Amino acid sequence: MKISGIICEYNPLHNGHLYHLSQVREGGADGIVAVMSGNFVQRGDAAILDKFTRARLAIQAGVDLVLELPVPYALAPAENFAMGGVALLTALGNVDEISFGSESGDIQLLAQAAEACNICKTEYADVMDDFLRSGYSYPEVLSQMVSQLYDEETAAVLRQPNNTLAIAYLNAMEELGSPLHPVTIRRRGAGHNSQQPTENTASATYIRQFFAEGGDCRRMMPSYSWHALREADAEGHIGSMEYLERLILYKLRTTDPDEMHNIAEIGQGLEYRLYKAKRAASLSELLRTIQTKRYPMARLRRILLHLLLDIRTEDMQKLPPYGRVLAFNDMGRQILRESKSMRTIPFSHSLAELAETSADAGRCAALESQSTDIYQLSRKKIGQGESDFRRHITPVRRRATGRPSRRRRDNTS
């Protein structure tokens, strides 16, 4: 049985994701395992739909098993995001390949760019540090150095976001010595973060913004995803940083620079810049105050969430201590059963059970539970606290209506 792995956010699930999954199936995959971000996503934001809803929609779309990318890796730069996802797919033991989208669609060119990046970061680390201290952003520095040391074609690969993430996956595989076989699928239709739809496809960024403005997104996503989005909106369950504004400002105003020093992604004295900005009276004012050329907006938004969620540098430097199951179907259950003799870390649907497996697992689970509690405050209708440890899952099955249904509880994971 050939099993393919993907790393995703599905924020929300749309037609571009369906295309990717169809290409994975056409490539011969019998089963698909997705490592998916939880309630917070890499751009530094609350997910539009909660993780369990998005996981069920992923199963409906064709995924067989959804694993949660723990919050320290989901809210992380590309290198850490990729490392967490690749580590989980590798640790399951029976995943054969990793499939990812890219603007390039050329695995050899991506591998060449990945090698160039590694050389720049190791052999020319002092040069990179000099550029960074001069105020240039990390992607700019890397692209310039690769252009000078190699060629413009390789450097051009680094200027497109999906290519950059693909390179991060390849580097993570190299660093971990992962046996996963890399496969890339050329991204089609609207580009990452594109503000314009193309035929029946649009970026998740466009869909989120268009939906927030009252737009009809049904042609851009499968019917079950559109239904879930509308239902969540009607029930006040759409996640938004807007509702976390007061919490973030409170946290900033009650934290001194010494306490901020160990928060993830804070460096080069940024804690003092943040401390001086605590007079801000809104989240937008705060971000405008601290933004510089060196610190992209996504990183600053992540840092504010790191501060709120107490995600520290060391949390991001360790590999995931467990694999938590968010959703599965019958094939996913078979994948889990067949992996039991090959796993290198514990896998289960029970966060409480996983928390007991090691000290690192306990810390990771505590962060996950806390992030879910705070996510419940990011919605118009506040959800209950302490819900993550009590959550149980059941197999998801496809119905003729195109919406997922659930059966009896199953504890075989």
The biggest beta sheet is recorded as:
7 strands, mixed
* Mean pLDDT reading: 91
Helix content percent band: 40-55%
Computed CA radius of gyration, to the nearest angstrom:
21 Å
| DSSP E strands, number | 11
User: Which strand order do you get reading across the main beta sheet?
Assistant: 7-6-1-2-5-8-9
SSE topology sketch:
Layout: E1 3-8, H1 15-26, E2 31-37, E3 40-41, E4 45-46, H2 51-61, E5 65-69, H3 71-74, H4 78-92, E6 97-102, H5 107-123, H6 125-133, H7 138-149, H8 152-157, H9 161-176, E7 181-186, H10 204-212, H11 223-234, H12 245-253, H13 257-260, H14 270-276, H15 283-290, H16 297-309, H17 313-317, E8 323-328, H18 330-339, E9 347-348, H19 351-355, H20 359-375, E10 396-398, E11 404-406
Parallel strand pairs: 1-2, 1-6, 2-5, 6-7, 8-9
Antiparallel strand pairs: 3-4, 5-8, 10-11
Helix pairs in contact: 4-9, 5-7, 5-9, 12-16
